[in-house]
């Protein structure tokens, strides 16, 4: 009798449990498929960035006379929404990157037995004593003020002395940032599927579905002499690791660009002070190659993810804008030729609207000789500063004369990560916006030019963008951008 009662109670409890479970699924929707909702995406608003809402524009210039007959390809395209730095990356922002690299090297050496071996600067086991992936302990401060003799050696090892005047300065040759990028786009292509049967959808007529697939990836390492070795290797596709590209990039900007870009000019003062002097903190960083700008984006992403914790899963990477995103953002909500309304270079009150070269040699007419502090001229209708003049800006797009002709009309982009051994013309990257040294015609939003990805200039800087985790924004005004 007790056994029967026990079974009955079990059946009743099971039926009740089924009723509770079923009420939130089949019984509540009458057996219809209504979708399983995921949790709300909470994407934090990025600091110092402006949301550029998705929309439409006609890329290019219809009136070519002002550009000496140079044909700028035209195309009607649509662009998704994204976040963009409100100003160009400044010296102080980039200096934070340089000093982070410096501090990471010091922490690594403080944990080295040859410099005292303080293992608390590098975490290799968790609080339970179990091994973890070795990583630096950023919570432990560097003993700048009262280091031991060994610690002082670790700290001083990243500095050098000027051979003539003895000035203490960072050893730029040591300041290298190593980062890895997983190529999601390449991994998604059918021709690179790990499962051979997925590489060709017509598997019935595939002659050799198990054929070896070769893949190219970038790798970098430091050799025994301390030199950075960069290689592009071709290997049979074997695992997801084959989509990981490794880079080691010297991060210190080339301060000599002020002398090299302007021969027979007394620009030594900028070479010595522009990046390091506090007076230039809020000026756009220059002397940074496209490769260094890419490294900054990778570091900025790493720095953000470390601070977000669980929210990091919803955040997109920082990157350089495509040249179409850049032009779309620069034109403003009405698609103007310049970031402002009309073609005039001054306001109704006679104030210049950007930092450029107003006359044949009168750089100072607009109030500046070289670059200017970011944000001192008015923002465009998207809320972005200095989208014309001040410094030209790197984009993520490889430069071709065809421009947008070969691109898609939805989120167009043309990328090519040139290998070290590639022909030099493949290393050209599109540069937009014009600079402090350019005349008015060359700071139009549609004007295209290029620079080689490993070439620093005293008139080229950059700003970062970040795709939105959820594309829900509407066009800013609903108007077409011409």
Keywords:
single chain, 482 residues, alpha+beta, paralog of FGE (formylglycine-generating enzyme), four-stranded mixed sheet, 19% strand, disordered N terminus, disordered C terminus
- Helix and strand content put the structural class at alpha+beta
Order of helices and strands: HEEEEHEEHEEEHEEEHHHEHEEEEE
Strand content is 15-25%
State the end-to-end CA separation: 86 Å
Largest sheet properties: 4 strands, antiparallel
What is the chains' assembly state? single chain
Taking all residues together, what is the mean pLDDT?
Answer: 85
Enumerate the strands of the largest sheet in spatial order, edge to edge or round the barrel: 1-4-18-13
Strand and helix layout:
Layout: H1 2-23, E1 49-52, E2 55-59, E3 75-79, E4 82-85, H2 91-110, E5 122-125, E6 131-136, H3 149-156, E7 159-161, E8 168-170, E9 176-182, H4 184-188, E10 214-222, E11 228-236, E12 244-250, H5 257-260, H6 268-273, H7 290-308, E13 318-319, H8 323-331, E14 392-398, E15 428-432, E16 448-452, E17 460-461, E18 465-467
Parallel strand pairs: 14-17
Antiparallel strand pairs: 1-4, 2-3, 4-18, 5-6, 7-8, 9-12, 10-11, 13-18, 14-15, 15-16
Helix pairs in contact: 2-3
Tell me about this structure.
19% of the residues lie in helices and 19% in strands. The protein has helices at residues 2-23, 91-110, 149-156, 184-188, 257-260, 268-273, 290-308, 323-331; strands at residues 49-52, 55-59, 75-79, 82-85, 122-125, 131-136, 159-161, 168-170, 176-182, 214-222, 228-236, 244-250, 318-319, 392-398, 428-432, 448-452, 460-461, 465-467. With 482 residues, the chain is of the alpha+beta class. The strands form 7 sheets. The chain has a 4-stranded antiparallel β-sheet with strand order 1-4-18-13. Helix 2 (91-110) crosses helix 3.
